[in-house]
Amino acid sequence: MKISIFAGVLLISAAVLSDKVKHDVAWFTNQHIADEMHESDCANVINGRGIMKDNGGCKWSNTFIKASLDTVTGVCKTPLLNPKSNLHRSTGTFTLIHCEQTKEMAQKKAKSPDCEYKEGEVKTEKTIVIGCDTKGNPIHFEEFEPK
């Protein structure tokens, strides 16, 4: 009986944890796709889209890809970087806007929607590494290269 109760608690815990992290293509699009964004738009886009940490705090940084979702989805067709991961590296390059929180806001530990960001840094001709789901959709932005 004790084992079945423990197993039940374990299953419920796993369900709650998996429900908390919902990284799907819609989440990825909201977090990282911004075809028409300008470097001066960091705070407006991040606050307007409700991009924040799980606890409601301001994200220290966020990178936006200046491309359509269809173009970024093409990266999921490249070979896996490691058979045990879901990561893919683009064969082409992208223009990115990398946004960082102001130091003052980071020290205040502000909460969304009161996050302030410096003007974004445009990064050109960068390859991207993204995670993709089993259907071939982007769900995670890992990094850009070279840094």
From TrEMBL:
SMART domains the UniProt entry points to: RNAse_Pc
Positions of the Ribonuclease A-domain domain: 21-145
Originating species: Etheostoma spectabile (orangethroat darter)
Entry similarity comment: Belongs to the pancreatic ribonuclease family.
Highest taxon in the source lineage: Eukaryota
UniProt cross-references to Pfam families, sorted A to Z: RnaseA
Signal sequence range: 1-18
PANTHER family referenced in this protein's UniProt entry, alphabetically: RIBONUCLEASE
Keywords associated with the record: Endonuclease, Hydrolase, Nuclease, Signal
One BP term from GO: defense response to Gram-positive bacterium
Annotated protein name in UniProt: Ribonuclease A-domain domain-containing protein
GO molecular function ontology, one term from the record: endonuclease activity
